[in-house]
Amino acid sequence: METLKVSAKGQVVLPARIRKKYGIHPGGKIQLLEYDNLIYLIPPSEDPVKEAKGCLPPKPSLSKQLLEERQRDSKK
Fold this sequence. Notes:
The chain is α+β, with helices and mostly antiparallel strands. Helix content is 34%, strand content 13%.
């Protein structure tokens, strides 16, 4: 974990190795996500759908479970 200094204008400087690793360039954009007490900086993505592929485990199949649950509910 790294500590960043906040300027009087609320700006922070990302370390060079992080900017290089994630392809963050001057004038570029990154997304900010706030969740509970955490702040996430999300680097740019050329194809977010492609990059998200495979991030969920293949099993259990939630769609299969949902269909089975609906079938049980319809029989009641």
